[in-house]
Design brief:
This is Cadherin-1. Cadherins are calcium-dependent cell adhesion proteins. Its main location: membrane. The protein is mainly beta. It contains seven helices and 53 strands. The chain has a four-stranded antiparallel β-sheet with strand order 2-3-5-4, with no helix packed on it. Strands 10-16-15-12 form a four-stranded mixed β-sheet, with no helix packed on it. A four-stranded mixed β-sheet has the order 18-25-24-21. A hairpin with a 5-residue loop joins strand 22 and strand 23. The termini are far apart.
Length: about 900
């Protein structure tokens, strides 16, 4: 029996419901679906009713188009709603309260949460999770309120091919089912207030008692809902707040008077209807964003967001709309920005954004719920206008006139300064300089320094006497970043005047090579090496001198630069490397200050046959048992043809015991007979290819060899070499050592002189010695002035010791000791000459200055004390009066001569 009021739920009428095994609940029936217009597949009737509306007569306020769109959008968003089910073969639409109609039949409801399903009656499926449309090909589409497709998905084939048994309607035993109960939040009462009456189908058979359990009843918040035990009326006890708990799920229990359950517990859902009692809230206290300057209208800037605790799904209480109600500053136009009322995206609406004029905008944003018709809140959005390179650097000043000395490399010509209105330190502010004209010779460069100035320096030395002594440079300033808009660049003009300076004379060529014979006579010209002065206008005089002559072989005429030798050129000298002798020549002009140029003279010395051959080794040992000759290399310092082939000749006295030949520039010498174990000096006359002869002396030690190795037995050779004189000398040394030890022993044991004691005998009278216990305290008289000790010392003059060292000059090179004894004379002479010209050879003079200790002293010196030349001048007679302890002294010094 149906109740006349929609707020009253009675026992359901017999009806058909879904019998699919996939259906979550078989109790999805409702007694309130009385409208006959729910059978249209296109929902063309405006009289669609919904059990979710406050009034049972509310209809869908939005009419849907009679047909679906002819084609899908090019790109559909992904399916992100829970799958509700697959319907029949007809088109399914939804409206307002998300009631989904399936005209022919409801086939299956799969993967759907229980709370998403409301109820099904006569093929109409009511859901609250989404809006669903299905077709017979298994495609489920999500539609908006106007029928436009929002999302779609393809269901598996096993859900499409259903048997007739699945589609057959079966009668089910009726059971009590209650649709969701709605109640508005913030009710004013009076409380408790009845909401709905619950009745069991067995209330006519037995007395039924009702009770409820669940949150809001017997669990927190306890006592919010109560049920009248006898009548089944469900009451609310105080106002509800949807933002606190939007829905309550209770279970109703029906029992008899003896407590036996009459029905299974029934679920009752209480949905709290929203009221617009909350203002929107911005998610940030201040929203910040940025936009480049010069952005065009339509450029997105940022988003602002606001939330509303009210319901924005079933009502528009929580739907927020955005608007801009204020802008600061208002230049260049108001408004400069607009906001999308639905998404909250702020975009540029006007042109003229310029960071240099307005770097920041503050917008006041208003958020209003109920789609702009309800409660409002305001927030702040700060937009920073970021810099772009819309300002070119400008020279200040634009002209420069500078003087640059000639021949300076890396010289700072000038510093260029620019101004730029863009952001300091950014790529749009950093200047880049380029020389666009006047630097064809590559004499200059410009670079950016730390202060954004342009530093102009010389890359090559400028020449005042050259073809160009005035340069005009055109320099343009750009930025490190490209210009965002076409801009006119700034150009600076730099005029460089080259200044004349006193330049050093220049030798031509800088390195002069000359070939001369090493036996060049003294005073003969070696070369004429001159320099020219670049300062031709000044007409200066040039004087020449020797800068570096290691061997001291050269002289130069100071006026004409003619270089002569001193007759000591020697190609074989260690000053000569690869036949070349190097000297430095100086040319000094008469400018103020003077300038000095240097030139390098390379003398290639031509060889003459001035060195005879000699032996490389002059001391060696020869094994007596060896039959092979001794082989000694022959050296000749000259060059071919003044060297080999060599020949050898032995003097007459050497030919008696030795024979010698030359084989491949080696001397082969061996004895003609067995010689004693002694050392022999053998003279050898060597002759080179040009007939120059030199005598070399060889010291050969004939020794006994050890085994077959050919090495000498040194100890045996040494013993065999000692003669009688050597043995006599050794024995004499030993004898002398023994005599010395004997004399030393006698000296130690010599008889000592016994002197009489100075002290008197014990029986003589002695003076008494008194001891005093009083010690310490220091000097009693301490009234003295220590400053007297410093007299004369503090007044001494300051005297400084200065070590005088000679002026440092290039150190000469000393010739190593030659292996040929015949060269000793030349070796000593050359090294003596080098030492005489060596300023670093110790010792060098040093001026020693001693400290002055003052004139006069209060204390007499030791030399002022008078002393006698003889003891006769002294009077020792007073010693006898000093007591018995001094009697001996008185007798020794004060007595008579007898």
């Amino acid at each position: 029996m149906a109740d006349t009021s929609y707020s009253l739920i009675t026992m359901a009428d017999p009806s058909y419901s879904l019998t699919s095994p996939h259906l979550t609940s078989p109790h999805l029936t409702s007694p309130h679906l009385t409208s006959p217009h729910l059978t249209s597949p296109h929902l063309t009737s405006p009289h669609l009713t919904s059990p979710h509306l406050t009034s049972p007569h509310d209809t869908c306020s939005q009419k849907l188009p009679p047909k679906l769109p002819p084609k899908l959008p090019p790109k559909l968003p992904p399916w992100d709603f829970p799958v509700i089910g697959v319907m029949g073969r007809t088109t399914v639409l939804a409206c307002c309260t998300y009631a989904v109609e399936c005209y022919m039949c409801a086939v299956e409801c799969c993967t759907c949460a229980v709370e998403c399903l409301l109820y099904v009656r006569r093929g109409v499926l009511y859901v609250r999770c989404g809006v669903l449309a299905c077709s017979e090909n298994g495609v489920a589409r999500m539609l908006d309120s106007w029928g436009w497709i929002l999302k779609q998905t393809q269901f598996p084939s096993h859900q499409q091919n259903l048997s007739n048994d699945d589609l057959k309607l079966k009668r089910q035993k009726r059971d009590w089912v209650i649709p969701p109960i709605t109640i508005s939040e913030n009710e004013r009462g009076p409380f408790p207030k009845r909401m709905v009456q619950i009745k069991s189908s067995r209330d006519k058979e037995v007395k039924v008692f009702y009770s409820i359990t669940g949150p809001g009843a017997d669990t927190p918040p306890v006592g919010l809902f109560v049920v009248e035990r006898a009548t089944g009326w469900l009451n609310v006890t105080k106002p509800l707040d949807r933002e606190d708990i939007p829905m309550f799920t209770l279970f109703v229990h029906a029992v008899s008077s003896n407590g036996q359950p009459l029905e299974d517990p029934m679920e009752v859902i209480i949905k709290i209807l929203d009221q617009n009692d909350n203002k929107p809230k911005f998610t940030e206290p201040v929203f910040t964003g940025s936009v480049p300057e010069g952005s065009r209208p339509g450029t997105p800037v940022m988003f602002v967001t606001a939330t509303d605790d009210d319901d924005g799904i079933d009502t528009n209480n929580g739907i927020v709309s955005y608007s801009i109600i204020g802008q600061d500053p208002k230049e260049p136009s108001d408004p400069m920005f607009t906001v999308n009322e639905q998404t909250g995206q702020i975009t540029v609406i006007s042109t003229g954004l310029d960071r240099e004029n307005n770097a920041e905008y503050t917008l006041t944003i208003q958020a209003t719920d109920q789609e702009g018709k309800g409660l409002s809140a305001t927030g702040k959005a700060v937009i920073t206008v970021t810099d772009t390179n819309d300002n070119a650097p400008i020279f200040d000043p634009t002209t420069y006139v500078v003087n640059v000395p000639e021949n300076e490399v890396g010289y700072e010509v000038t510093r260029l300064t620019v101004t730029d209105a863009d952001t300091y330190g950014s790529d749009a502010w950093i200047a880049v300089y380029k020389i666009i004209k006047g630097n064809e010779g590559g004499f200059f460069k410009v670079e950016t320094v730390a202060d954004n100035n342009g530093l102009v320096t010389t890359v090559k030395g400028l020449d005042f006497e050259g073809p160009k002594n005035v340069f005009q440079l055109s320099i343009v300033a750009l930025n490190k970043a490209n210009f965002s808009v076409p801009l006119q660049t700034s150009t600076a003009l730099v005029t460089v005047n080259v200044q004349d300076v006193n330049e050093a004379p220049i030798f031509n060529p800088a390195v002069y090579s000359v070939s001369v014979s090493e036996d060049l006579p003294s005073g003969q010209e070696v070369a004429s090496y001159t320099a020219t002065d670049p300062d031709k206008v000044q007409n200066q005089k040039i004087l020449y001198s020797i800068g570096n002559d290691p061997a001291g072989w050269l002289s130069v005429n100071k006026d004409n630069g003619i270089i002569t030798g001193n007759g000591q050129l020697d190609r074989e000298s260690f000053y000569v490397q690869n036949n070349v002798y190097k000297a430095i020549i100086l040319a000094v002009d008469s400018g103020i200050p003077s300038a000095t140029g240097t030139g390098t003279l390379l003398l290639t010395l031509l060889d003459v046959n001035d060195n005879g051959p000699f032996l490389e080794i002059t001391q060696l040992a020869y094994c007596q048992q060896d039959t092979n000759p001794l082989m000694i290399p022959i050296i000749d310092r000259d060059l071919a043809p003044n060297t080999g082939p060599f020949s050898v000749e032995l003097p007459r006295e050497a030919r008696e015991n030795w024979t010698a030949t030359v084989v491949n520039d080696q001397l082969h010498i061996k004895p003609l007979k067995d010689l004693d174990f002694e050392t022999y000096d053998v003279s050898v006359n060597l002759k080179d290819n040009q007939g120059l002869t030199n005598t070399s002396r060889i010291r050969i030690m004939v020794c006994k060899c050890i085994g077959e190795t050919g090495t000498c037995e040194e100890r045996a050779a040494l013993a065999g070499g000692l003669g009688v004189p050597a043995i006599i000398g050794i024995l004499g040394g030993i004898l002398a050592l023994l005599i010395l030890l004997l004399l030393l022993l006698l000296f130690v044991r010599r008889k000592k002189v016994v002197k009489e004691p100075l002290l008197p005998p014990e029986d003589e009278t002695r003076d008494n010695v008194y001891y005093y216990d009083e010690e310490g305290g220091g000097e009693e008289d301490q009234d003295f002035d220590l400053s007297q000790l410093h007299r004369g010392l503090d007044a001494r003059p300051d005297v400084i010791r200065n070590d005088v060292a000679p002026t440092l000059l290039p150190a000469p090179q000393y010739r190593p000791r030659p292996s040929n004894p015949d060269e000793i004379g030349n070796f000593i002479e050359e090294n003596l000459h080098a030492a005489d010209n060596d300023p670093t050879a110790p010792p060098y003079d040093s001026l020693l200055v001693f400290d002055y200790e003052g004139s006069g002293s209060d204390a007499a010196s030791l030399s002022s004390l008078n002393s006698s030349n003889s003891d006769g001048d002294q009077d020792y007679s007073g010693l006898s009066n000093w007591g018995p302890r001094f009697n001996k002294l008185a007798d020794m010094y004060g007595g008579d001569e007898d």
